[in-house]
Amino acid sequence: xxxxxxxxxxxxxxxxxxxxxxxxxxxxxxxxxxxxxxxxxxxxxxxxxxxxxxxxxxxxxxxxxxxxxxxxxxxxxxxxxxxxxxxxxxxxxxxxxxxxxxxxxxxxxxxxxxxxxxxxxxxxxxxxxxxxxxxxxxxxxxxxxxxxxxxxxxxxxxxxxxxxxxxxxxxxxxxxxxxxxxxxxxxxxxxxxxxxxxxxxxxxxxxxxxxxxxxxxxxxxxxxxxxxxxxxxxxxxxxxxxxxxxxxxxxxxxxxxxxxxxxxxxxxxxxxxxxxxxxxxxxxxxxxxxxxxxxxxxxxxxxxxxxxxxxxxxxxxxxxxxxxxxxxxxxxxxxxxxxxxxxxxxxxxxxxxxxxxxxxxxxxxxxxxxxxxxxxxxxxxxxxxxxxxxxxxxxxxxxxxxxxxxxxxxxxxxxxxxxxxxxxxxxxxxxxxxxxxxxxxxxxxxxxxxxxxxxxxxxxxxxxxxxxxxxxxxxxxxxxxxxxxxxxxxxxxxxxxxxxxxxxxxxxxx
Length: 510
Ligand SMILES: *Cc1c(COP(=O)(O)O)cnc(C)c1O
Description:
globular, four-stranded antiparallel β-sheet, seven-stranded mixed β-sheet, single chain
């Protein structure tokens, strides 16, 4: 018989209680939110919440947190996602009560605005851009803002026929999606065998309809576009602009600036590179930076400074702005963490980030190659990430990139990114990040060596992995499309509300 942990609902016993961890201070007025809810919208019966003790609650949530992989517990080499360790101090400072107490409509709190202003200035300095807006709340929204600015620029010059966006074959999926969302036509250009943009194809793709090219550099193939200056010349000469997808800046921080490469606009994922964890659907910040051509179009509000005073710049100051992207000014908490992180690192610290990001990636690549794994671009130095391809192993042993990824979970490692970029068959995109130690990288390599041995001797172990986790191999499509989290009380069980709630029309969890 399979032993299973009880669900929290099954632990419920009528009348069992836990004490509130944070009782209101003595003398504080009792606030009843319920009194503010119109009578016809109030519940007739109390919600059927489980009635459990404090210890049961603690065990429940602790156990749940351990069922998953996290950066605090596991190496997490998920390429293109930068799942690195974020110093707890950044979060602690951003959560200071003086910050938390600020309401978005507070009258321009000077300390808070000073931090955001300095963050704008630092982002300008590290990217080589002329202006920055912090309001986009995700990388994809930053891209949207960037392409909206590019369109506004061409329209203002009576050049509105420019509606083609060039993206290389290896682009992140959000790039073509953004172009389409902004009403543009996507033109794909291929990469050559070394992973660089095919220059001949680029030359024939540009023309009088070119609005822009969207590039990630280093690309999602994990290599630096060494002809970037020539690419910029070709696109600019054709009348187009250059968009830099700066979701991952940890390969270039403090070393090279998109503005110097010739880019006109960039978005940065502050939630990947700058101390907010990425993933799990948490808050993000996709700050955008622009060169002189696009300065008038930046999304508002922006923090401006007049003498010693900081204030919000709005449509009055920037009448040609593309407008607002969020309820107010974006995710202030994420922006604050980025500010604190950059202040903690300083200039030298930021350069060390990129040095270790690329050292770790190149070390891991070399060790995996020595263990028999095939690099997708063996002639190229890795940036902060690299790709191995298992196409040979797929034919030799009948195992796939997915099988290796699943088996890694059994060894206690989160899987690398699989099957992206689409252009490399059976690929794993591996990003160790700058925060891992050599010992941890070695442990990962040892696991990959062990998996390689299994591939040759007992490939079935890979095909049926994972073996050591609470759930085995899932049907990915069903898990995503038919995820069922509804719990139904079994018939006859008398709960706190008499056992009548949540019965009809619901699907049981198991
Ligand atoms: C993560 C990522 C994005 C999208 O960022 P979101 O915040 O997830 O919208 C865009 N481009 C690249 C290269 C990325 O890695």
